Amino acid sequence: MTTRAQPFEQLLLECVDEGLSVLGNEPCQALYQYLLTICSLPREEIPSRVEDFVAGLRKSLGGASKVMERMILRKLFQKTGSSFRETIDTEFIEYVADAKRRYEILSHRHGVTEDSTDVTRSKKGQVTG
Q1: Is the four-CA dihedral 10, 80, 93, 38 of positive or negative sign?
Q2: pLDDT of 47 over the 70 cut
Q3: Tens-place pLDDT, residues 67-83
Q4: Which of 23, 62, 80, 96 has the fewest CB atoms inside 10 Å of its own CB, making it the most exposed?
Q5: 3-class SS letters over 19-62
Q6: Residues 97-124: what's their mean pLDDT?
Q7: β-strand partners of 65
Q8: Comparing C-alpha atoms, which of 52, 106, 102 is closest to residue 77?
Q9: For 8-112, CATH number?
Q10: Sequence-distant contacts of 105-111: CB under 8 A, at least 24 apart
């Protein structure tokens, strides 16, 4: 699991990088170049344009894009502390939205538990601080 201070968008971009890295450095860079020139999608904008990313990935890799999508999703769910379970008729963008929701819930919980450690109890059991 990763640190919660990291924005989800940055985490998603890391998972995209890691997932696509299995292609090798040059093919990965070629894919990013394709997304930039053909789809007008710079790498940095992938988290805010997930639907465009998937469309470009599918256009460039064809059927192999599904394999890449699953690899990215597995990494994303792993880094958000969840397990990826593929279901029929669920699209990549829906999985990403679910992972973001889970990440935000866990980040909120983590933040709450950190804040609660500042609370101390007096000898009479009253909460102070």
Answers
A1: positive
A2: yes
A3: 999 999 999 999 998 88
A4: 62
A5: HHHHHCHHHHHHHHHHHHHCCCCCHHHHHHCHHHHHHHHHHHHH
A6: 66
A7: none
A8: 102
A9: 1.10.1200
A10: 106/4, 106/80, 106/81, 107/4, 110/4, 111/4
Q: Take residue 102 and report the two structure tokens written for it.
A: 């889970």
Instruction: Please state, in angstroms and rounded to a whole number, the distance separating the CA atoms of residues 10 and 14.
Output: 6
What residues does 128 pair with on adjacent strands?
Answer: 120
User: Considering just the CA atoms, what is the radius of gyration of the chain in Å?
Assistant: 19
Contact between residue 118 and residue 129 where contact means Cβ atoms under 8 Å apart:
yes
**3-state SS record for 64-92:** HHHHHHHHHHHHHHHHCCCCCCCCCCCCH
Terminal C-alpha separation, the chain = 31
The domain spans of the chain are: 8-112
Of the listed ranges 19-23, 35-39, 106-110, 119-123, the least confidently predicted one is: 119-123
For residue 120, which phi and psi values (nearest 5 degrees)? -120, 160
